[in-house]
Amino acid sequence: MSELIRITVDGQERSVDAGTTSTDLFSDDKLIVVARRNGDLVDLVAPLSDGDVVEGVSIESEDGLNVLRHSTAHVLAQAVQQTFPAAKLGIGPFIRDGFYYDFDVEEPFTPDDLKRLEKAMQRSSTPARPSTVARSATTRLVSSWPMSRTRWS
């Protein structure tokens, strides 16, 4: 028998199996895109701990929409790298009305390029599980990007 932990979900206290994730809690609500655990936004696959206070964050909320915009910027960057391997990535933050991304390319993107990128984004936007990467590996990767303004220590 699995160990039980006590958590509070959307204001209701309950017992769940150790190893339960927010994905498990909110799988029936397709509007939930991220969770707030103990006041902090966390992805849905992070295992919960005893005593956690968890709430689902809807894509219709400001935080949920910002997560969508942030994730979409990553999908765009991936599509650009796949479609234009020589492109250099800049920054791509979400903003009030969407997001933007800076790319260093030889020629500006054309309307046909944008259609290709949209198709590439649609192909790559299947749900994926986040992975955990050591900070040292992330630091080496990001600091090697020519347009990276951030030099991590």
Spans where pLDDT lies below 50 across 5 or more residues? 147-153
Please trace the helix and strand order, writing H or E for each element: EEHEEEHEEEEHH
Q: Tell me how many strands there are.
A: 9
- Terminal CA distance reads 45 Å
The total of helices stands at 4
Mean pLDDT: 85
How would you sum up the global shape? elongated
- The radius of gyration computed from the alpha-carbon positions, rounded to a whole number of angstroms, is 19 Å
What does this structure look like?
The chain is an alpha+beta fold and 153 residues long. Helix content is 33%, strand content 23%. The strands form three sheets. A five-stranded mixed β-sheet has the order 2-1-5-3-4. β1 (4-9) and β2 (12-17) form a beta hairpin. α2 crosses α3 (111-124). Mean pLDDT is 85; it is low at 147-153.
Question: Outline of this structure?
Answer:
The chain is an alpha+beta fold and 153 residues long. It has helices at residues 22-26, 62-83, 111-124, 135-144; strands spanning 4-9, 12-17, 32-37, 40-42, 53-58, 88-89, 94-95, 98-99, 103-104. The model is unreliable at 147-153 (pLDDT under 50).
Question: How are the elements arranged and paired?
Answer:
Layout lengths: L3 E6 L2 E6 L4 H5 L5 E6 L2 E3 L10 E6 L3 H22 L4 E2 L4 E2 L2 E2 L3 E2 L6 H14 L10 H10 L9
Parallel strand pairs: 1-5
Antiparallel strand pairs: 1-2, 3-4, 3-5, 6-9, 7-8
Identify the notable features of this structure and list them briefly.
153 residues; alpha+beta; 5-stranded mixed beta sheet; two-stranded antiparallel sheet; 4 helices; elongated; disordered C terminus
